Structure formats: C-alpha cells, structure tokens
Amino acid sequence: MTTTPFPSGTILGYPRIGPRRELKQAVEAFWAGSITAAELEQRAAELRAATRGRLAALGLGREDAAIPESFSFYDQVLDAAVTVGAVPSRFGHLVAEDGSLDLAGYFTLARGAGDNLPLEMTKWFDSNYHYLVPEIGPETEFRLAGDRLVREFEEAKAAGYLTRPVIVGPVTFLLLAKASDEAPAGFEPLSRLDDLLPVYAELLARLHAAGATWVQLDEPALVNESIPVSRPEQLTALAEAYRVLGAETNRPALFVAAPYGALGDALPVLAASAVEAIGLDLVRGTLPSGLDPETAAALATKTVVAGVIDGHNIWRGDLAAALDVATAVTALSPTVSVSSSTSLLHLPHDAREETKLGQLGNWLAFADQKVGQIVTVAEGLRGGRAAVSAELDAAAAALAERLAAPGVRDAAVRERAAALSAADYDRGDYAERVAAQEAAIDLPLLPTTTIGSFPQTSDIRRARARLNSGVLSSTEYEALMKEEIGRVIALQEQIGLDVLVHGEPERNDMVQYFAENLDGFAVTEHGWVQSYGSRCTRPSLLWGDVSRPAPITLDWAVYAQSLTAKPVKGMLTGPVTILAWSFVRDDQPLGETATQLALALRDEIAELEGAGIGIIQVDEPALRELLPLKRADHAAYLDWSVDSFRLATAGVRPETQIHTHLCYSEFGEVIDAIGRLDADVTSVEAARSRMEIVDDIASSGFDHGIGPGVYDIHSPRVPGVAEMTQLLERALQAVPGRRLWVNPDCGLKTRGYQETVESLQNMLGATRAVRATT
Ligand code: GLN
Ligand code: ZN
C-alpha cells in the first residue's frame, strides 16, 4: 500500500457537545419525544458539518486527514461496542437482523430500560469524562454491526473534507470491558481478541474503500497501570492486534494514539508493529529515551505524532516550549507531526466567547485556541522558529503577564502555608475523640443521616436563575432558600432522621458554589465540557492563590441549626474534589494548591464549630478520581491529598465530629488512604455492590465510623424496608453496631421528593427493625 503523508498538525479529537450544547439539547429532545430520530440525525449532521468547517478555518483544512472524525451521540466506547456488535444479551431484543441498533436502542444501552440496567459507567482515565463499560463474554458474537464511522467519513467527503476516522482500538476496547453476566468466573474479555480483530479489519477495509487515507485507533489503556490484566498479556495482545491489522492490504494507514501518559514498554511493541504512525502524549509523558537500537531504528521509519499541546487544560501556556519538545522529537524520527496530547473533548469550545473574564481571558486556550496553537507549532517545526515568532512572542507575553498578575501569588497565603507544622495536620487520639463526641452529641445506635443535598426542585433552580438575571434581589433569594431549608428540616424531623442537613438548596453545584465564594477562582459563561452522555459540567478556573474573603456556608448552617434541636451537619466540599472538578493552575504542584484550599476550608470549619455546629462533613467524592495512572505516582498523590483533608479538618476540638463522604465503590488502591483521612465517620457508596465494600474496609483495619449506603440514589426506584434491613444486617457482620451509620449512597439532589420521602421512610423502618434485634 502507498501511504499519504500524515498531516503536519492535527488534534486527537474535538468536543462533540457543541458551542451552545446543541447536541445535549437535541439528544434530550429526542429522549423526551419532542423530536424524531431523523431530526436528531439531522441536527447531529449539522453539528459535524459546523465542526469540520470550524477546524478547517482554524487551519486543519489544508492537509488531508488532519480533521478527526470524532463525533459521538453519547460515548466513544459505546460506539465501538455497537460497531463490533458487542450488545449484552439483556438488550438482545433491540438488535436488528444485521446486528445493528437504531438510535433509540443505542441510547437504551446507555440509559437502561425497566429492569434492564444500562452499561456501567466509569471514569475515562484520569479525566472527569465517563465512558460506558462494554460487557464481553464467550457468547459475544463480534461482527461489523455498525457503519456510522464509514457514513460520517462519506458525509465529510461529500462536503469536500477528507477526514480521519477515529475509533477506540481493539486492545483498549477489550481492556476497558468487563466480563458479561454469562461469562464464567475468571473470564477475561481480552481472551476474545482473535475473534474481534477480523471485525476491525473489515471496518478498516470499508473505510479504505470509502477513500480514507488514515484511521486513528486510540489505545490509551496501554498507559494505565491500574488495569487488572497483566502487563505481559497486554503487550502480547498489542503486538498481535497490530500484526493482524497491519498485515491487511486493503486498509488506510494506521495511526495509533496513546493519550494520558507515557507508553513505556508498549512503545517498543508498537514500534515493531506495522502501524504507520504513533502518537505520544508528551505533556503527561516525557520524550522516550534510552530506546534499544531495534526500537530506535523501527521508530525512525514511522511518523511520530508529538502530543505537545495539552488537551486537558485551558491554559495558553508556553508555546515556545511546546515547539522545543516537538523539535526534540525529530531525534526519534525524521517524520514528526504536531498534535494535542489528548482529545480536546475535555475542553470548552472557544475562549473568545468568554467576554467577562478581563485579563484572564488572554491567558486561556480552549479547544479552538489549542487548534491554532498546534497549527503554529507545526508551522514552526517546518519553517523554523522565525516563521512563527510573532505567535510565540504573544504567547510568552501572555504567560509573563499571567505569572506576574496580582492575585496569582498572594504573600499572606504563601506565608501561612510555609509556616505549617505537623501538629496542624493531627486531630489527636481517636479514642479520646469518640469519648468526647459521645458526651457532646446525643445519638442512638445506628444513627441515621443523609449525604447532604435534598432534591433541587425546579422552583429552586428558577429562583437562582431569577437571582442571576436580576429579577430577584439577593434578600428575596435568601428568603426563598431559607423557606426551603425550613421545609427540609421539618421533613427530616418528621421522617425521624438523627443527624439533619440543610439540604444545599443554595448550591448550583458542590464545587462551583465554593469557587464562586473563594478568591483565586473565576467562572465561565459558556465553558461547558461533556461529563457523560448529555451531561455537561462547567468547571471553574482556578487561576490564583486561594483565600476565603468571607464565610461561605456559615449563615445557612446556623439558620438550619436554629430550627431544630437535632444536630445539623455542616457541609463542605473537600480540597481534592474542588481541584478535580475545576480547571487548575499549571504553574505549581497540585499539592500546593490543595494546601491553600485546605486552609480556606479550615477557617470555614473553625467558624462553623464556633457557631455551634458540632458535626461537619467534608465531601471528597473525587479522591479516587485523581489517583495517577502510574503506580509510581500513587504514594505522592495520596500523601498530599490525605494531608489536605487533614489540614482542613484537624483544627477542631475532639468533641466536634468530622464526617467525610466518598462516592465510588471501587476502593482497592485508596483503601489505606481512607483510614489516613482520620475522619470520625465516613459514608461510602455501597448499595449497588450489595455491601461488598464493608468487608474490604473492615479487613483494611479501618476502625472509625462508617456509613455504607443502603440505597442507590441514581435511580427513582424506592427500595423496600426488607431490602435495606438485609443490607444493614449484612453490614453488621463486618462492622460492629456502635460504628455503623445508616445513610443513602449519595446526595439526593437529582431525585424527586416523592421517591425521596418514601425511600427515607423505608430506611428509617429498616433501621428500627435492626435496632430492635441488635
Ligand atoms: N454533599 C453532597 C450532596 O449531597 C455530596 C455529593 C457527592 O458526593 N457527589 O450532594
Ligand atoms: Zn456521593
């Protein structure tokens, strides 16, 4: 086969959601039945056309295959699954004779229907994007069941663009999959590689026949050391996959991308394979060095696609440094192309849309600006630094302005952080705290509580929208929120809960709310990024040193406590979670930023305590999420993340009870860290895994209070008393009653009131039943 050169600059993928979340609106309209499948297809096609047009205008249109075809209606891993016919048997009735699914069927896999649970959703590497987990078993019949990728390529071609189709590679697809319900114990999806490869080969042949010159296969699983399959097995599979696909003659040239980290020992395997281009993440990873002679020689025959522009953060950054890295890559191969380190899916579309950020706006690069940067670096690589000196200088000036801007470094914040000592991180003896808390807080055996939020009704959201548009004054808004808090407190008393919450009605989001009230953060108007499916988040921008100009939660908590004799929990979001769900500064280690956040929260906690709030919860649902992909980096991460929690919470008296909430059930690698947080009570998601987690926690030596969730809040289903009684009894086998708390899996903000009230009443019913027998 003859190979068209790889384009000199490209991106690994582009945001799909649309500059004004057009895809979200269209998909949700389809779900609501207000538009037809044909209308949804039409709107998606318009969005794809607009994307190609925009990318061409930004400079990716000059070379063939520079524009990636990376659209998805919901998720790229789900797309790969339906492309290869991997539909779990419980959805078999949705599959047509030829193996295909219509749009409604496709969304059913993502969202479930009735008793048929959707595919499990989990985090995509160390990003805040979530993918759907394919289910593979011996019974999975792989076949080319979807030709969407081919049709989208043809659609582009008809519009005059020769694009580059993107699909999750076969090895990553299987490594991210889990065993199907039918699979025997110990079954590994990767064992089906030989059966899967012919389907990929057929797809490649179809794309080749349609005129595609290059195809991108994403293999990020190779950079992730947390995948349970052994490394030698992974590498054997990688070699086999690209031996088989490479040997096909009717195929486009293959570009294998490995975003999110360094390939390590997978690089020699790919270099030895028949693929024509290899993509390296040179933002997370470093330039490979010390390669053995064969690998070096093999790599020199390929295009190395240098991921030098960060696809994962929003900073304009140091463009000259990126050009230096790209230039250094020419030592590996004479053919170097410039790209983003990851897909730009993690970024909002266009920083020029943010008109209210002032100077900060000049420091930012969203997806469109990153494309411009790639085009610049590619030009610099070809034509020399001088050819792009104006752009490099402008970026350098913006960076210098940023680093010197007021607020980026705040002397008072830095002095305080520098003066910390070990005692600031230590709450003292746990047994003494237990005794002090038992004396100070009157609680029954198996105390009941919730995780914090109560349903965010449309009235609440409307009130906030009216506040933001100036229709409501802040006094009127506060009065409405206080009414809501009053209702939530009365309801909890009526249900009989022991530790109450104020319900968080005033929070638009558990991170953005704090970002809006802390110095060092800015919020965007249009900076939406896809979290999963049609769900988007608008991360705040953490650009400077963090401090707390005024109390944040104090008035709300005090007001709630004034309404009841029962204890009301103060409710804060922890440093790691605030970092994980914001765009963070890149000019200092994350741990330093975490310390600043911890100090701000520590002051808030001190004021809550001073105002008589005796129980304070600091949520860290993202603790597991930020865990680095490389094992060697785990210890350092867990040290600073645990420290930040301890620093935030260790200032309180022994009788003040600190709670935390973690909302994932896969603890494995962070289980020791949970103990090191030294919270008095930890609530965790547990209902969906039928309390399995309590055994892991118990055997880890954890001996503080624990509240394993007794019901799943992700669905409107109301669990019965018997079901929750059983779960509590199950928990009591591993945890002594005096340490066991009773609560749902997570906050209730996405639920409706009716199901919430019924579920909580049943939760109390189960608790009473178990108390009576314990
Ligand atoms: N306190 C938060 C709430 O209840 C916790 C949310 C979370 O864990 N994601 O909404
Ligand atoms: Zn949670």
Automatic annotation (TrEMBL):
The active site is at H714. Catalyzes the transfer of a methyl group from 5-methyltetrahydrofolate to homocysteine resulting in methionine formation. L-homocysteine binds at I451, G452, S453, E504, D619. Residues 446-767 form the Cobalamin-independent methionine synthase MetE C-terminal/archaeal domain. Its cofactor is Zn(2+). Zn(2+) 1 binds at H661, C663, E685, C746. Zn(2+) binds at H661, C663, E685, C746. It catalyses: 5-methyltetrahydropteroyltri-L-glutamate + L-homocysteine = tetrahydropteroyltri-L-glutamate + L-methionine. Pathway: Amino-acid biosynthesis; L-methionine biosynthesis via de novo pathway; L-methionine from L-homocysteine (MetE route): step 1/1. PANTHER family: 5-METHYLTETRAHYDROPTEROYLTRIGLUTAMATE--HOMOCYSTEINE METHYLTRANSFERASE. The gene is metE. GO terms for molecular function: 5-methyltetrahydropteroyltriglutamate-homocysteine S-methyltransferase activity; zinc ion binding. L-methionine binds at I451, G452, S453, E504, D619. It holds the Pfam family Meth_synt_2. This is 5-methyltetrahydropteroyltriglutamate--homocysteine methyltransferase. Residues 10-330 form the Cobalamin-independent methionine synthase MetE N-terminal domain. InterPro entries: Cbl-indep_Met_Synth_N, Cobalamin-indep_Met_synthase, Met_Synth_C/arc, UROD/MetE-like_sf.
